[in-house]
Amino acid sequence: MLIRLLVSVVVIYTGLLTAVSAVHPVQKSWKALEGTVDTNVLDQASAQELRYRLPSYIVPTHYKLYLETQVHTGNRSYSGSVDIHLDVQQQTKTIYVHNRGLRILSNELYSSDGGENVTFLETLRYTEDQEREFVIFSIRRAIAPARYILHLNFEGQLRTDEDGFYMSSYRDANGTRRYLASTQFQAISARSAFPCLDEPALKATVSIEIKHHPSYEAISNMPIYAIAGDTDGYVVSFFETTPRMSIYLVAFMVSDFEHTSSEEGRQRVYARPNAINQTLYALDAGVLIMDALDEYLGLPYGDFMPKVDQAALTQFSAGAMENWGLCKYREEYLLYEPGVTTFRSQTTITTIIAHEYAHQWFGNVVTNKWWSYLWLNEGFATLYEYMAADMAYPERQYSDLFNVQVLQRVLITDAEESTRPMTFSRGATFYAIVSLFDSIAYLKAGSVLQMFRLLLSDTAWRQMLRIYLEGNEFGAVSTDEFVDAMAEVTDGLDLLPAHVDAEAFVKSWVEQAGYPVLELRRTDRGEILLSQDRFYSNKIVNDDPTVWMIPYTIMEQGDSLQADEWILANVNQVGFFRVNYDTANWNLLIQALMDETETIPTLSRAQLVDDAFHLARSNRIDLLTTLELMRYLRHEREYPPWEAANRAINYFYNRMRGQPDFTLYHIFVDTIIGDVFVTLDINSVLPDETLFDKYLRQVISTWACRMEIESCLTDTRIALEREVSGDERVHPDVSEVVYCYGLRTSTTSAFQYLFGKLQASENRGERLVLINALGCTNDTEQLNAYLLTAIGGDLQVNFDLGERTSVLTSVLASREGVDALSSFLIDNYTYVLSTLGVNVLNNLVQNIAARTNTPEEEQMVSIRQKETLHIHLFKRRFVYTFQLNTLLQELQLVLPAGNIAAARSTASRNLAWPSTREGVTLSYFLERYGVQPA
Question: Where would I find the Peptidase M1 membrane alanine aminopeptidase domain in this sequence (predicted)?
C-alpha cells in the first residue's frame, strides 16, 4: 500500500465546483461571569469604546509605588503613594488616571528632566468619573510637551472578591485562620490597587516598596534588594525595578507563606506552611519547562528577568496568572502530593505551569496592544502549554492531547451562530473585556496557531517566533506585527500560492468568525473536487460568503486515486476545519477502520469520529454513517479516538435515557467497549503504564460501570471496601472511578468513610475528587444529607464557596441526584441565590432541564412526604419532589424570564428528541443491527 502526503492551500468559493453526491483552569474563572451582561449592552459598549480609552498623548514611563498593610491582623485597610512618571507629548491642561474605589488623599505635579532634578508645579484640582473609572486632573496653565511626575497619596480597602488587591485566608495546622494580601490585575484591575494608566500598551518600569509586619514576607515581580526596619516595628521590603511592562502584570503578595527553591535560586514555589511539602513537583516542572522554552525559543528568560516565583493560593478566582516573575495559581493547579494527586491533576498542573511560563514571552515580553488582540497572548500560551510540557516530559505525549482537549472542543463552540472572530472588541468596560477571555481567545487561537506552525515547518516557525519576539521586545502588538513576522519568513519559501500573501492568509482566520467544512469529492476520472462552506452546528447555509484560505493535507490508500481506495484529508487534524466526503469514501474509510485500524493514523481516527458525529448532527451526512463508523471502536486501543467517541456516546446516552430503546443503547455501548474493557485492570496501576494507558482505562471503565457491567461494579466496590477496612488504599490514578461507582453498590459506611476523608483532607485536588465521588451515590437519603452540607445543615463543613458549588453539581451524575437537587433547590434556593449567586442557581436549573427526558420528569405531580433521616451526624426532615415544572414555578420570581424560558425550551427539545431525525435514526440503527456485547 502506498501512502502519499500532499500539502497545499485551497481557496475555493462556495458553489464554484459541483459536489458529488454524498472542549485553563485558567478559563474557568471567566466562565463564572457568563450571563451577567446582556449581549446588546456589550454591542453598544463596543461602539463607545473610545470614551473609556486614555488619550494617546500621555504615556507613563515609570511608577514608584509604596504600600502599607496590616493584613496579618485581618485588617483590610491599606494606604500608599505612587509617583507616576509621564511623557506628555502634546500641550494639555488635563491628565487622566484610572482609579477604582480608592480615596485620593493628596496630589502634587512636578516637572522632571528625566533624572534627579524635579520642580514642584502645583496641586491639581480633579474630578472623578466613576462610570469610566477616571480621575481627571485639571492644570491651571497648559503644560508643554515634556516629562512630569504626578505624585498621589491614597488609601483603600483590600477587596474580598479575589480581584485587584485583595485579602484571603487559610487555616494553619492548628486550625487558626491566617490572612494574606495578594493581587490579580488582569485585565483592568490594577486601578483598584493604586492609581495608574491601566491599558496594556502603556508599558512602564515599576519600583515597589511594601511596608508590612516582620512576621510576614512580601514578594513581587522582582527580587528584594533591601529590607529596612521602621520605628513602629514594621519593616519595608524594597524591590528591584522591573523591565518595561504592562501594568496588569504587576504583582505582589504579603503573607506568612514558606517556599522551596531550585539550586540555582532563580525559581521558588510559595505555599501555606501546612502545604509546603506539596510544592516539589511544581518546582521541578517549572525548571524543566523553563529550560525547554529557553532552548526552543533561543531567547533565555534570564535575559529579561532575574527570577520567577510560583505561588499557590487557597482563594484565586483567576485559576492561574502569568504575572512577570510571579506566577500565581489556585492550589489545585500547582500543588502535587505523591500518592494522592491523580494523573489527570498532574497533567493539569504540568500544562498550566507551561501555559503561564509560555506567557513570560508571549504576553509579557510582547503584549497585546489592546484586549481585542487577546488571542496573541492566550493562543500562544494555549499552544505551548502542551508543546512545552511535551518538551519537558516527552515520554508523556502531552502534545498528542492537544487535538482532543483543545481543537475538538472549540470546534463545537465555534460552530455556533453567536461565535466571534479572534480579533474582536466589545468595549473597554470591565465586563466587556472579561467577556473576551473565552474559548475563542484560548482554544481557537491555539488551534489556528498550531495550523500555522505545521504549515511553516518547525524550523521556519521558530525563525518566525524569533523575529516576532525580538522585533517587538518590551512592546505591544496587533495582528499586523504577527503578519509581518510571518511574511518575512514565508517570502521565498513557496508555502503559499502565488496569489496569496501572508496577510490575506492570516486574516482569513483571525478576522472572520467560525470555520469551514472542506468538502472532498472524487469524479469518475479520479479527480478530486474540493469546495468549502462555513460550518454551523444547527444548519447548512450554502450561500454563506465567508471564505478561508485552507491549508490541507491528503493521504491516499493507493497511488492512483482508484474508486475502491480511500482518501483522507486534513491528516492528523492539523487544520482548523472539518472534512466531509462523498458516501463512497466514507464507506471505504469505515471499512479500513474495521479491517486494518492502524493503517489510518491515531489522531486521524479521532478526527474521523469527531467529524462524523458533528457532520451528522448538522445534517451534512446520514447519522447511520456515523453509527456505522463507531462500530469500529471495538478494535480501538488508543486514547485519542476514544476521547472523541466519549462525547458522542455521552450525547446519545443523555438523549436515550428513559426511552424505550435505552436497553438497546446499553447493549450497543457494551459491544463497542467490551473487547478493550476485558484487557484492563481497573483497580491497579502498573509502574510502566503510559499516560495514555491511564486515560484510556478511565474512559472505558467509566462507561463499563455506567452501563452497569457487573464485573466493573463488583471490582470497584471491592476496591473501595478494602480501603474502608484499612487493607489497601485505592491508587489515586483509579480513585475517580473506584470511589464513584464503588459507592453505588457499597454499604453506608463507605459513604461515611469518604465524607470523613473529605473533611480531613487539606489537598484541594483530592477534595474535589472526593466531592465528586460522594455525589455519585444513588441513595436518596445520602444525597439529601450531602446536599445539605453545601449550606451547612446541622453539620458545619469546611467547604469554601467553590466547593459548595461543586457539591451541588456533583449529584447530577445520576437521575436520583437530579431529583434530589430539584427538591433541595425548591427548599433552599434563597441560600444558593444569596451565597453562591444567580449564575450558579441558573446553571443548576439549566443542568436539571438538560437531564429532563420524559413527561414524568417534567410534569409529574409532586410527591411531598416528610421523613426523618439519620446518616452519621446528619439529622434533617426532607421534602421530596421530582419535577422540573415545580422548580421553575418556584424560581420564576428570582431568575430572569429568559432563563426560565431557556430551561423549559431545553426540556421540550429533549422530550421531542425521540421523534426527531436523530432519534428515529438511532432507534432504527439499534433495532436493525441487534448488536450484542462482546
Answer: 281-509
The residues annotated with a catalytic role in the active site are 356
Other CB atoms within 10 A of residue 697 CB: 24
Q: How far from 2 is each of 6, 558, 582, 725, 762, CA to CA, in Å?
A: 13, 5, 22, 59, 57
Residues shown for the chain: 934
Q: What is the number of helices (H) and of strands (E) in the chain?
A: 31, 30
User: How far out from the chain centre does Cα 208 lie?
Assistant: 32
Q: Fill in the DSSP letter of residue 463.
A: H
Read off the amino acid at residue 605: R
CA-CA distance, 486 to 508, in Å (whole number)? 14
Q: 195, 82 in Cβ contact below 8 A?
A: yes
Each residue's pLDDT tens digit, 237-246: 999 999 999 9
Q: Under DSSP, is residue 63 helix (H, G, I), strand (E, B) or coil?
A: strand
Distance between CA atoms of 274 and 762, rounded to whole angstroms? 9
Answer whether 380's CB lies under 8 Å from 49's CB.
no
Q: Which three cell numbers stand for residue 929?
A: 443491527
Of 281, 68, 42, the closest CA to residue 763 belongs to 281
CB atoms closer than 10 angstroms to residue 866: 9
CA–CA–CA angle 750, 754, 755 (5° rounding): 115
Query: For the chain, what percent of residues have pLDDT higher than 70?
Result: 91
Query: What is the average pLDDT across 194-205?
Result: 97
- In sequence order, what are the residues at sequence separation of 6 or more whose Cβ sits closer than 8 angstroms to the Cβ of residue 164? 100, 183, 184, 185, 189, 190, 192, 193
> What is the rounded (10 degree) CA torsion for 648, 651, 656, 657?
130
CB atoms within 10 A of CB 638: 20
- Return the minimum-mean-pLDDT range out of 98-102, 375-379, 457-461, 585-589: 457-461
Binding-site annotation: residue ranges for Zn(2+): 355, 359, 378
Please state the residue numbers annotated as binding site. Answer: 355, 359, 378
On the CB side of 701, how many CA atoms lie within 13 Å of its CA?
28
More confident residue, 253 or 497: 253
Q: Which residue in this structure is represented by grid cell 484571603? A: 168
- In DSSP terms, 254 is beta-bridged to 181, 218
Domains of the chain: 57-256 (2.60.40.1730), 367-511 (1.10.390.10), 515-569 (no CATH)
Residue by residue, DSSP assigns 137-160 as EEEEEEEPSEEEEEEEEEEEE-BS
Select from 26, 662, 575, 11 the least CA-distant residue to 353.
26
Cβ burial, residue 613 (10 Å; 0-12/13-18/19+): buried
